């Protein structure tokens, strides 16, 4: 058994993910199960949400999980074992009003991990996606007119 080790990671900061993955692999030697469960969302009309915020949501919900997965994947492939799980959202399957950036990022993640599942079959690596319905999560109430602050984490 290993003593737990806390490693902080901002999944929306793509530049630090490789270093964190290296730290994890150096510490433990391998990852048996990778659960991608981070998420960021915003509620607002498409025309009210800035492109900058759209990108931040895409970084956290799509590029973050795939970057971390790609960093851990070579180790799993070399060992021919492992399990990768994406905790996603029902909005990765259907879109609803006022959640365009969030739904788009979740659709993209489902597409990526569906393809990855097919590719990893030959290496005996299991890839699963979980798409729960609506959940209660932490929410910061924005000042009027400030959609940038209307982020769920």
- CATH evolutionary superfamily of the domain at 32-132: NAD(P)-binding Rossmann-like Domain
Biggest sheet layout: 3 strands, parallel
β-strand percent reads 5-15%
Q: In terms of structural class, how would the helical and strand content be classed?
A: alpha/beta
N-end to C-end Cα span? 31 Å
At CATH level 3, the topology of the domain at 32-132 is: Rossmann fold
Shape: globular
Order of helices and strands: HEEHEHEE
Read across the widest sheet, the strand sequence of neighbours is 1-3-4
- Whole-number average pLDDT? 88
Q: What is the count of helical runs? A: 3
Please summarize what this structure is:
With 153 residues, this protein is of the alpha/beta class. Helix content is 42%, strand content 13%. The two termini are 31 Å apart.
How is the secondary structure organized here?
Elements: H1 14-28, E1 33-36, E2 41-42, H2 51-79, E3 82-87, H3 100-120, E4 125-130, E5 151-152
Parallel strand pairs: 1-3, 3-4
Antiparallel strand pairs: 2-5
Helix pairs in contact: 1-2, 2-3
Written account of the structure:
With 153 residues, the chain is an alpha/beta fold. It has a domain at 32-132: NAD(P)-binding Rossmann-like Domain (Rossmann fold). It is 42% helix and 13% strand. It has helices spanning 14-28, 51-79, 100-120, and strands spanning 33-36, 41-42, 82-87, 125-130, 151-152. A three-stranded parallel sheet has the order 1-3-4, with helices on one face. It has a two-stranded antiparallel sheet with strand order 2-5. The longest helix is centred in the middle third of the chain and has 29 residues, at 51-79. The mean pLDDT is 88. Belongs to the short-chain dehydrogenases/reductases (SDR) family.
């Amino acid at each position: 058994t290993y003593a737990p080790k806390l490693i902080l990671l901002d999944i929306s900061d793509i530049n630090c993910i490789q270093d964190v993955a290296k730290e994890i692999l150096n510490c433990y030697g391998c990852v048996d199960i990778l659960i991608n469960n981070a998420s960021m969302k915003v509620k607002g009309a498409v025309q009210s949400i800035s492109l900058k915020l759209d990108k931040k949501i895409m970084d956290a919900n799509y590029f973050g999980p795939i970057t971390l997965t790609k960093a851990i994947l070579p180790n799993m492939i070399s060992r021919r074992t492992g399990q990768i799980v994406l905790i996603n959202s029902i909005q990765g399957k259907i879109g609803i009003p006022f959640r365009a950036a969030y739904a788009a990022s979740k659709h993209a993640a489902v597409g990526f991990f569906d393809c990855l599942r097919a590719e990893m079959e030959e290496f005996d690596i299991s890839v699963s996606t979980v798409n729960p319905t609506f959940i209660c999560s932490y929410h910061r109430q924005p000042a009027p007119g400030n959609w940038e602050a209307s982020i769920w984490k």
